[in-house]
Specification:
Distance between the termini of chain A: 48 Å
Shape of chain B: globular
Strand order of the largest sheet of chain A: 2-1-5-4-3
Radius of gyration of chain B: 20 Å
Number of strands of chain A: 12
Shape of chain A: rod-shaped
Oligomer: heterodimer
Number of helices of chain A: 18
Largest interface: A-B, 62 and 58 residues
Strand content of chain B: 35-45%
CATH topology of chain B: Immunoglobulin-like
Structural class of chain B: alpha/beta
Number of domains of chain A: 4
CATH architecture of chain B: Sandwich
Structural class of chain A: alpha+beta
Distance between the termini of chain B: 56 Å
Radius of gyration of chain A: 59 Å
Number of domains of chain B: 1
Chain lengths: 551, 285
């Protein structure tokens, strides 16, 4: 089990290390993502700023055709001459001129509204601003951007009027020796169309806000524009941001864990009104080790070398299974097979050398246990019936001379026949388990019925006196189970001799008569067809056991 | 006492906006009201006209525009002069017909005048500077197609409140002093109201600087020009008799040309680094 356990420990360590690494990786990823997001947002904000400036410059160039249009300068000059009221023909001619020039400007570079303003600041003509329809006293001259244009400057501005506008203005010169005749003002509405166009060109998700409301938004396809609505709730706290207050650009702010935002004030009057734009990015934060799965896209999964991971898992599982089979399943099966052989009596004992590790110890313990039980006489028996259990307590002698020689009772006290109750165990032996030899003696072969060369130390003459003439060959009644009784008698006599018991007066006839009697009793009581007797040592004395056979 | 005349030399009375029929009617009503009760002297026959001229007003600088050109105000992302426009016109001098108020002060206090119409639109009020006796009621009319939120700076009786398109709002000048009116929705809009008990008449010069004042009573008067809430130029004492008075030969000199040129030079020096940064050749010029 060493390899399996080592493998388990190794797998555990690998799992723990993997978990630890995933936590570290998620932390590093989040930190890196936070930094990258902050840099990305700053970059987005800067790019949007550049775009707005460049867009304003480009559009200011589109005002030149208006300023150079002869009718524009001419009728602005005409309007200047009348401080009380703008001449109607000047309005008409200027409107025509504005429309004519505007038609020549590419749509993507054009304006939503164009205004022609005279020196008094009055809007003499305009296109694309229906809100001022019919307002003859509509003017723009107070705005710094228009005032600057009337005084010879080209510049941009962001005005928050009914809507938010990006404004560019430039002077219109009619007489170079005089003050500019007026100014031409181009306005672009900052609406969703403007924001979408900006987003497409910069790749940033951007939302414009003014008066505490989101006024326009645009974002790339992968960014849900609706998420930009979240900035509305954040605008109230925006003024608390020191960077935003002082530098016009806030630090990176996270809103509800949904998006990270950076706010930038818009240049122009909008700056003082707290209007600006916000660029946003969705935070790429993993919530934990498993968060990687939810954030991984198809490309990530494709690059993740899944076959290698599967191979590693298969190899690890294979090694674990192999170790388990080698160290658990296989020894267990060997032990099981050996135990089955032991149970079937094929082997007398478990062979510890065939096992390894704990199984070897188990086998040895089982063997030792069996030996000790047998040495104690064993427990309750399920196998062949105990002779004494069947026959009851039998006196060792003299009436039952089959079990002792008559002289024994005289020379020594009657030894207890040993426990005969089932609980104490009678003659018992494990199936197939060899009977133990009497202590200190090797089991001799029983004397041959013919008085042949026998090893028992008993004098042959004494034996002869107890034996019928002609040996034991003619003993028995000729019944089938009595054929073995002579062998049983010889074994019994030899065992008694080995145990130091006297065999004097112990004859086969008595022995056989007693066996027959007991056989008959057993046949009657247990319904056995025949009874086979065996010899064993019990409590240091020779004893018989009867095995009723029912087949 | 003569009525306070809010009349520019060549400027019509401040009529209300006349876009829609309703607004046109409203504007006409206010115009007539102003014309009948305020702009025309109470006894026109007895009034004497003072014709005069202001000089050097192009040496003044509109404080709102001057502030807006400061790069620190973040008022623009680029601002470049057009080379063909002469330098003298690049100075952000005020639009005299709206911003310079010439007032005639009598020796004694004058009573409050009928309501004065102040138009709010185009990023400023018309007029920008107004000199009236205390207690005069001002009617602010929004002439823009969007709302304004006017308020008096530090004036408890003139808190911020919305004035919708075409709507009016009234406020009475509470006491002598200088009051500044601003708009929370339009930072460039700033108006100054100077309340002087002795003001007898006011006028606004034309683009050329000419103005005409009508005073009802003969007597000693002092002419003083105001700009952005402050006196500009020296006061000019005049004695009005029954006949009109021509003062054009002794114009009110509002600002010194040399001082203005020096200021322009300083401003140009200050603008140089800022202008160098966004330098981009201007197309077509």
């Amino acid at each position: 089990m060493v390899l399996s356990r080592f493998w388990y420990v190794l797998l555990g360590l690998l799992f723990g290390a993997s978990l630890f690494l995933l936590h570290i990786a998620s932390s590093m990823y989040n930190r890196s993502g936070l930094r990258a997001r902050a840099e990305g947002l700053s970059s987005d904000a800067q790019v949007v700023s550049w775009y707005l400036r460049d867009d304003a410059r480009q559009r200011s160039a589109q005002l030149i055709p208006f300023a150079l249009e002869s009718d524009v300068g001419k009728y602005l000059q005409k309007a200047n001459e009348s401080e009380a009221k703008v001449p109607d023909d000047a309005r008409g001619k200027l409107t025509q001129a504005l429309t004519r020039v505007n038609a020549q400007i590419p749509k993507e570079a054009g304006f939503d509204s164009v205004f022609a303003v005279d020196q008094h600041g009055r809007v003499v003509a305009y296109i694309g601003y229906a809100q001022a329809s019919g307002m003859e006293d509509f003017e723009l001259g107070g705005y710094p951007v228009v005032a600057d244009a009337l005084h010879g400057y080209v510049r941009d501005d962001t005005l928050v009027l009914d809507r938010m506008y990006r404004i560019v203005a430039r002077p219109v010169e009619y007489d170079l020796a005089s003050m500019p005749a007026g100014a031409i003002v181009g306005a672009r509405v900052i609406d969703d169309r403007f924001a979408r166009e900006l987003s497409q060109r910069t790749g940033a998700a951007v939302a414009f806000y003014a008066n505490g409301q989101r006024s326009a938004a645009g974002s790339p396809a992968e960014f849900a524009t609706a998420n930009l609505d979240a900035i509305v709730g954040d605008l109230t706290d925006l003024e608390q941001d020191k960077d935003y207050h002082e530098k016009g650009r806030s630090s990176v702010r996270e809103i509800g864990g949904m998006i990270a935002v950076q706010y930038t004030r818009l240049p122009g009057e909008a700056w003082q009104l707290g209007a600006g734009y916000a660029v946003a990015r969705q935070p790429a934060v993993v919530s934990g080790p498993l968060g990687f799965f939810s954030h991984a896209d198809d490309k990530d999964k494709k690059d993740a070398k899944l076959p290698l991971a599967i191979l590693a898992a298969v190899v690890a599982a294979g090694i674990g299974i192999l170790f388990s089979v080698l160290e658990h399943t296989r020894p267990l099966r060997v032990f099981k097979a050996e135990a089955e052989r032991f149970a079937a009596g094929t082997v007398e004992q478990l062979t510890p050398s065939r096992f390894r590790g704990l199984f070897r110890k188990i086998a040895a313990d089982v063997n030792d246990g069996v030996d000790k039980q047998l040495a104690k006489g064993g427990g309750p028996r399920r196998g062949p019936a105990d002779f004494k259990e069947v026959l009851g307590d039998l006196p060792d002698q003299p009436m039952m001379s089959a079990f002792s020689l008559p002289g024994d009772a005289l020379g020594e006290p009657s030894a207890p026949s040993g426990p005969s109750s089932p609980g104490s165990g009678g003659a018992r032996s494990a199936p197939g388990r060899a009977l133990p030899s009497p202590p200190g003696a090797k089991r001799p072969r029983p004397p041959a019925p013919g008085g042949g060369a026998a090893s028992p130390p008993m004098p042959a003459a004494q034996l002869d006196t107890t034996m019928p003439e002609g040996g034991l060959s003619g003993w028995g009644t000729g019944a089938p189970d009595e054929a073995d009784w002579q062998d049983v008698f010889r074994d019994f006599v030899a065992t008694k001799q080995q145990c130091g018991e006297s065999i004097e007066g112990f004859t086969y006839e008595k022995f056989a008569e007693r066996l027959r009697k007991n056989r008959d009793s057993l046949v009657q009581r247990m319904g056995a067809k025949r009874v086979k007797f065996g010899v064993h040592v019990k409590d240091g004395k020779a004893a018989l056991k009867a095995n009723p056979i029912k087949e | 006492m003569a009525g306070v005349g809010y009349v520019a030399a060549t400027m019509k009375a401040p009529l209300g906006p006349a876009s829609s029929p309703l607004r046109r009617r409203s504007g006409r009503a206010l115009g007539w009201l102003a014309a009948l009760t305020f702009l025309v002297p109470a006894s026109a026959d007895a009034a004497a006209k003072l014709r005069g001229r202001v000089d050097g007003f192009r040496n003044l600088v509109n404080p709102v525009w001057a502030e807006a050109r400061d790069p620190k105000q973040h008022g623009y992302s680029f601002r470049e002069p057009v080379a063909t426009v002469r330098a003298e016109y690049r100075r952000l001098f005020p639009h005299a017909p709206k911003e310079i108020c010439v007032a005639a002060f009598a020796v004694g206090a004058q009573k409050a005048q009928p309501p004065v119409l102040v138009r709010v639109g185009g990023g400023r009020t018309t007029p920008v500077t107004l000199v009236v006796p205390p207690g005069t009621r001002l009617t602010f009319q929004n002439t823009d197609p969007f709302k304004h939120r006017l308020h008096g700076v530090g004036i408890s009786t003139f808190p911020p409140a919305d004035t919708a398109r075409g709507a009016t709002r009234e406020w009475s000048v509470p006491a002598p002093g200088v009051f500044e009116i601003r708009d929370e929705l339009a930072p460039s809009l700033r108006m100054w109201v100077i309340a002087e008990p002795n003001v007898a008449a006011i006028a606004y010069p034309s683009m050329k600087g000419d103005f005409a004042l009508s005073v009802e009573e003969p007597g000693e008067y002092t002419l003083q020009a105001f700009f952005a809430g402050k006196k500009v130029g020296p006061a000019l004492p005049v004695t009005v008799k029954d006949a009109d008075l021509d003062l054009t030969k002794s114009p009110l000199k509002l600002a010194d040309e040399k001082a203005a040129a020096a200021a322009d030079k300083a401003e140009a020096e200050k603008d140089k680094p800022a202008a160098a940064e966004p330098a981009k050749p201007e197309a077509g010029k």
